[in-house]
Every structure is written in C-alpha cells, then in structure tokens.
Specification:
With about 800 residues, the protein is of the alpha+beta class. The protein has 23 helices and 17 strands.
Length: about 800
C-alpha cells in the first residue's frame, strides 16, 4: 500500500488555498527543500492522514504536543484543521482518508465510486475510537509511528535515552505502544498482589480479608436476635421524632406563606401608592409644550436703567457756589492787585545799609572825608538803591530767579563803578552814614512812606507781602470754584445725554412688545405690568417643568402604564400567595403584622431545630447499627457472600497464575522468533552502510537488546559506538522493524524525515542506494534539506526516483 497524493486543507503552515498538495509514486520519493519549507509538517500530515488520532476520554501528553506543533497557523482553536490522503492498495483499489483533526472525525471513502463511504472498512480498521489505516499493514497508529515514521528529532531523543531503544523494540514486538510481555507479566503480578495477596494472619489483601470476613459473618449470626428487639424500639422512637419534624415543617411552611402574603400585601400597597403619586404628578404637569415666551431681557434692562437715571429734566447734582461769574472776571481782579516785595531780597539789599548805619550812627562822621572820597561813594550808593528797587520789582513781576539776576548785575555795576573811580585813599575809608538819598531810595518801595531806619523798612516790606499773600489765596480759592463749576456743567451735560439715550432705548424695547405711552410714568407702569405678566407666565412654566422633572424621576425610566401593570401584578401576587396560604390550611386572617410573623417564625424555627436534632440523633443511632446484625436472613446472606468472596479470590489467584505462565511462554516464543529475523535484516543493512566495518548484529531474545559484531568478531553495545554510526544503526533497525513487524496483507510505506543528516558523504550515498533498493518492495518517502540528497535524486530520476522540490512556506 502506498500514498498516491496528500492535500493539506489546513495543517500547520500548509493550506489548500495555496495549492498545498503533493503527488507520489509507489517507489522512492525524495521531497527536498530548505529549512522553513514545511517538510516536517508534510511528514506529520502523512502520518496523521493514514493513522488519525485516538478518540477516547481524556487528553494525553502526546495529543497536546501534536496539537501544539501542527495546529494551523492561520486560525485559532475553532478554525478548520484537516488533511486528506489517497492510498493505493496492493490490489490496485484506492482508498481516501479524509480527517477532520479538530473534531477528530474521519471518513474512509472510495474515490473511484464517487467518494462512496466505506463503512465496513471503517469498522474493520477502527482502533482506539477512530479508523486507523496502519491496521491495513499489520501495525497500529502507535507502532507505525515507532517503526515506519522516522523523524530525525525522534532519533535524537531516543539516543538521549539509550534504554528507549530496547523498550521500543519490545513494544513493537508486542504490537502495542505500552504493553511489552515483561510489563504484562509485571502487571499481572502487581494485580495478583493487590487483588489476591497471601493467607497469613497479618496480611491485608483480599484473600486474607475474605477469610476474616467469613469468620466474622459466623460470629455475627449468633448475636442477631439479641440486637433485633433494641433496633425495633429505636426505630419506633426515630419514626415518632421524624413525624414531629414533619408537623413542624408544615407549620414553618405556613408561617413562610404568611410572610410571603404579608410581603405581597406590602409590595402591592407600596406600588398602588406609587401609582397614585405618579397620577397626581401627571395631573400637575400641565402644558409644558406651549411655545416659548418672548425674551423680555432687553426690556427689563432698559426699564431698570431708566429708573436708575431718572427724569432728564431733573438732577440730583448741586452746582458749586461761585464768588465770580467766570475766570475772565477773576483774572481781571487779580491784575488789579498791587505787587508784593520779596522780604528776603529786601533783607539782602538793606543789610549793607544797616551795617553802615550801625557804624556811623545817625549824625555825621567823626572825621569828615575829603570831598573827593565823598564824591566817589555817592554815585555808588545811588546805583545800589536803584538795583535794589529793580530786584524787588522783578521778584513780583518775573519771579525770584529774575530778581536775583538783576540784583547780581547791579552789584557788579556798583563794583565796576567804584573800581573805575579808583581805589579810595586812606583818608577816604570812613563808612558813610544813612543819608537822605538812601532813605529816599527806600521810600520808593511801593511809593509808600517808610520809617527812617532800615529795620522799619524790612518790617514794612513783610507787611506788604502778607497782604499780597492773602490776595493770592483769595485768587486760588476763586479759581478752584470756577473749576468745580466747569466739572458740574460737563457732568450735567453727560447725565442728560445718558438719560435721553436710556429713555429712547426703553421706548424702542417697549414698542417691540406693543407698548406705546407718551407719558414717561405711564410708559414705565405699562412696562412693569408686562414684565410682571411675563414673570407669572414663566413661573407657571417653571412649576410645570419642575412637576414634569419630578414625574420623570419618580417614573425611573418606566411609563405610568408600566407602573400600573406592576401594581396589577403585585395585586395578582397577593391573590397567588393567598391561594398558597389556603392550600396549607391557613387563611388571610392568620396573617399578622411583620413583627408577629417574625416572632412566629423564630419560635417555629427553634422548635424545628430541636426536633431535627433529636430525630437526627435517633436516625444516626439507627444508621450506626449494621442491619445484618439485626436480621437473621441478612446475617445468613452476609455469611454466604463472605464464602462466595473467598471462593472468588481463590479462583482469581488460580486464573492469574495460569495467565502469567501463558504470557511468559508467549513472550519467550516471540523473542526467539523476532530476534533472528532482526539480526539477519539489520546485519545486512549495517554491513552495507558501514562498508563491512560491522558484519552483523546480535539481538538478545530476553530483552531484544542489540549488539554489533565487528570484523574481528568483537561485540559492541549499540549504545557505545559513535553518534553517527549509532544513528545509522538505529535507522536500519527502524527500516527492518517496519518490514518484520508488518504482518498485514499490504506493504507498509516508510516515511523518513532528514534521516541522513548526520551521515558522512560516503555513507549518505550508501544509505540512499539502500533506500533505493528497498523502494522496489515498498514505498519510501524521504524528506531532506541536504544538497547531496538533491543532487543524487536528480541523477537517479531516470531510474524511477521521484523528486519533489518545495518552495518557502507562506502563512495562509
């Protein structure tokens, strides 16, 4: 039997939408591709299509590992996961295996008859709950995976545990994945020890228990009659207590029914009150859908502004009282004021004269100066007096700075005049007295009579200055009053303008609301009336809106009809609870208030707990009594049962001993028959692959352990040679196992995944030639990523080697 084709509808990275399917021949097929081209996925898909997956309770580790590795990449756990393969049997007929791996369902069909389902064949090859195509070649899905489906990863894992080699051979020889002859014998002995045991007194297994049980049954039979009477008395007591419990439970049910009726009444009353409240709110809602009221905000603002400003013809301002009518008149008055001398300047210029007067006194000097000296000082004094008068006048008219300038100029003129006239002689140095000319000069101040002395002149100047200062203060006060009057006139003008604008705005706003009144007071009265009417209407709308809000809040998302329906349902619940109450033998008259019901329930519950405790104690006492100890027939039946159990254990012991003997004989025979066939076939392959380095192999019939024979006749354990040679020996063993263990009517195909990857070039060539020779008898599908294998396949394509080159796998 061989694979004709395979189609991966959804398997790992493979998907039929991408055209993922392969065609094979009956001989040697080489499927080549670099890494990540899906070789291992195709290898697993072939095994899954032929053998399927077991269908039974639970999920094994192998099932979980298979699902994790090969579930489709393009879909989750609920997506499609399926593969199908077409096989050609030895008689030329075709069989198609269609596997839904997600649902673990399989259809075996005949593609030559329109995919007619082969029900009889499905039944014939069903193994572990699902059709297993490996049965057609004498294997099953477990032994096929070990003998005919060789994965490079499997070789490596087995080498990591050398004992797995012997265990695998033993499993394959036994035809099961977990049942070797040795294990079967171990399990039989374990089962015998667990379920039979020994007869000795301290044994605890079934045989000893059966003997002890028979002895106890005989002893119990003698004590039955004495315990029977006491048991009947206890039973009567327990029955009375259980009857009391039943009555109290009925009373409790009645109280619960009363409570349910009370709750139903309260709920119904609550809902009826709620409906009445909602109906009242509904009546108060009114018409909230009337058109919106006109906006009176501008009108209200206008009238408020008018009321704040008042009549434009009146004013609340009082004008300032004026001493003069205008600033022009005030300025004329100020110009008529006489100028006032600066007292400081008078003191400055009078000081020299005072010193002269102090030196000479009021008379003539003691030593009269010559005429020439007297002539020189007189003009100088005259110039000083004139300068003093000019400085005083300037201080009044132009200010103190100008006066100082004039005074300084006069002083300089006096000095130059004296210097030009020549320095005074010794006879001319006498201080002059206050002459009549000086007094005349001082008297010219304001053209007023001044006292004879300089101090009096200063005092008079200060008095004049104080008088002029009073006049100045009067002028400043008058100027302030004029400024106040100007501000008042401006403010009054602004107020009248604002008032006129406010009244114009009010009339415009009133006109928009149909108000027309010539009189100002009447206009304000009508506007206030309109505003009051608007406020009342708005208040009514607000009240209706508030009522609607309260109604919507009370409705809580339901309509009034729904609340009425709830109230009706609550009333119906009242009727139902009353019916239930009457069915328990009570009436509505038995329903008190909630407090009374709660007290009744507490009392009944306490009594019921006490009665249950007593009944449970009595029942527990009865349950603690072995019925066989109070029933003669039961005691006799227990004795018969103990005897039967004793005999059953003895028969089981005899059966297990015979089974173990037969199994040992069968295992010995299997080992003796299988070992020579493996030695012959593996020896030939190993000798050819190693170029005669190892001439044969030996297989121990006891445990199927393998040893290699060298050219010199030495024998080496298969686990002690080099890694590459060990893998080649292991591959030879797998090839031979598929041939030796395949006992069906069909030849078993071989599926090899990178089985030559660790061989050197020479041995790799030899292995490929061996596979080519083996392919004459059975189909071999070799998956490889090696360039040497690709070149070899191309060179032998004319000899029947079918080459398939894979491209990169792309996710669906």
């Amino acid at each position: 039997m061989w694979f004709s084709n395979i189609r991966a509808r959804a398997f790992g990275p493979l998907h039929s939408d991408k055209g993922d399917q392969l065609q094979f021949t009956s001989g040697l097929n080489v499927v080549h591709g670099p890494n990540e081209t899906g070789k291992s996925s195709w290898h697993a898909a072939l095994s899954a299509a032929l053998c399927g997956r077991r269908r039974g309770p639970g999920r094994t580790t192998d099932d979980a590992t298979f699902a994790e590795r090969h579930r489709p990449w393009s879909s989750g756990e609920d997506g499609p996961w399926a593969v199908e393969a077409e096989m050609v049997r030895g008689d030329g007929t075709r069989v198609r295996f269609d596997r839904d791996l997600r649902l673990n369902e399989t259809e075996v069909c005949d593609p030559e008859l329109g995919d007619r389902r082969l029900v009889d064949l499905e039944s014939e090859i069903t193994h572990d709950g699902s059709p297993d195509g490996a049965l057609l070649v004498g294997l099953n899905r477990s032994t096929f995976a070990m003998a005919a489906s060789v994965r490079q990863a499997g070789v490596v894992s087995d080498l990591g545990n050398p004992d797995a080699l012997q265990e695998q051979l033993a499993r394959a020889a036994a035809g099961s994945d977990d049942a070797t002859a040795a294990r079967a014998l171990e399990r039989i002995e374990s089962f015998r020890s667990e379920h039979v045991g020994r007869k000795r007194k301290n044994a605890i297994r079934p045989l000893r228990k059966a003997i002890d049980a028979e002895e106890r049954a005989r002893s119990e039979l003698d004590a039955v009659r004495g315990r029977r009477d006491k048991y009947l008395d206890d039973m009567a007591t327990a029955d009375g207590l259980r009857e009391a419990v039943g009555e109290l439970e009925e009373e409790r049910d009645r109280v619960h029914a009363c409570a349910a009726t009370r709750r139903a009444h309260d709920e119904a009353a609550k809902l009826v009150g709620k409906v009445h409240e909602l109906e009242e709110l509904s009546d108060r809602v009114g018409d909230c859908d009337a058109p919106e009221l006109a906006d009176v905000t501008p009108l209200a603002q206008a009238v408020s502004k008018v009321e704040a400003i008042g009549d434009p013809a009146t004013t609340s301002l009082e004008p300032a009282e004026l001493l003069v009518e205008s600033m022009a008149e005030l300025d004329a008055q100020m110009q008529s004021f006489p100028p006032a001398p600066e007292v400081a300047q008078v003191q400055q210029w009078v000081a020299p004269l005072r010193r002269l007067g102090a030196q000479n006194g009021a008379g003539e000097p003691a030593h009269p100066a010559p005429d020439s000296s007297r002539q020189r000082w007189k003009p100088a004094v005259a110039v000083a007096v004139v300068g003093l008068l000019c400085a005083i006048a300037a201080s009044v008219v132009a200010g103190p700075v100008t006066a100082v300038g004039i005074g300084a100029a006069t002083g300089v003129a006096v000095l130059l005049f004296v210097m030009r006239r020549g320095a005074p002689q010794a006879s001319d140095r006498a201080e002059p007295t206050v002459t009549a000319e000086m007094r005349a000069a001082l008297a010219k101040l304001d053209e007023a009579e001044l006292p004879h002395g300089a101090d009096a002149a200063v005092s008079t100047a200060a008095q004049r200055r104080e008088e002029l200062g009073g006049l100045q203060r009067r002028r400043d006060a008058a100027a302030h009053d004029v400024e106040r009057r100007q501000r008042f006139d401006e403010a009054e003008q602004d107020r009248r303008a604002n008032a006129d604008a406010a009244w114009a705005a009010l009339r415009d706003a009133a006109a928009r609301h149909g108000i027309d009144a010539a009189d100002a007071d009447e206009l304000v009265t009508q506007v206030r009336s309109v505003l009051n009417d608007h406020g009342s209407a708005q208040a009514e709308r607000d009240a209706a809106s508030a009522a609607r809000g309260a109604l919507e809040e009370a409705l809580a998302g339901q309509s009034l009809e729904e609340w009425r329906a709830r109230a009706a349902n609550a009333q119906q619940a009242v009727d139902e609870t009353q019916g239930a109450l009457e069915s328990l033998g009570a009436s509505i008259a038995d329903v008190g208030d909630a407090g009374e019901i709660e007290r009744r329930l507490a009392a009944v519950t306490a009594d019921l707990e006490k009665a249950r405790s007593a009944a449970d104690t009595a029942t527990g006492k009865l349950e603690g009594i072995d019925l066989a100890s109070v029933d003669i027939a039961a005691a006799e039946a227990a004795l018969d049962e103990a005897r039967a159990e004793h005999e059953r254990v003895l028969r089981l012991d005899k059966t297990l001993s015979a089974t173990a003997r037969f199994m040992q004989e069968a295992a010995d025979n299997t080992h003796r028959v299988l070992a020579p066939r493996i030695e012959e076939a593996v020896g030939a392959l190993v000798s050819r692959v190693t170029d005669g380095r190892y001439t044969g192999v030996l297989v121990d019939p006891a445990d199927l352990s393998v040893r290699l024979i060298t050219q010199s006749g030495d024998r080496r354990d298969a686990r002690s040679i080099s890694r590459g040679t060990t893998e080649q020996v292991y591959l030879a063993l797998r090839l031979v196992l598929a041939q030796v263990l395949s006992t069906g009517r069909e030849q078993c195909p071989l599926l090899l995944d990178d089985s030559t990857v660790h061989a050197d070039n020479e041995r790799k060539q030899t292995i490929l030639e061996c596979l080519f020779d083996l392919a004459a008898e059975r189909q071999i599908i070799l998956f490889s990523q090696e360039q040497q294998v690709l070149e070899w396949a191309r060179s032998r394509s004319d000899d029947g080697v079918h080459l398939i080159e894979l491209g990169p796998a792309q996710p669906a």
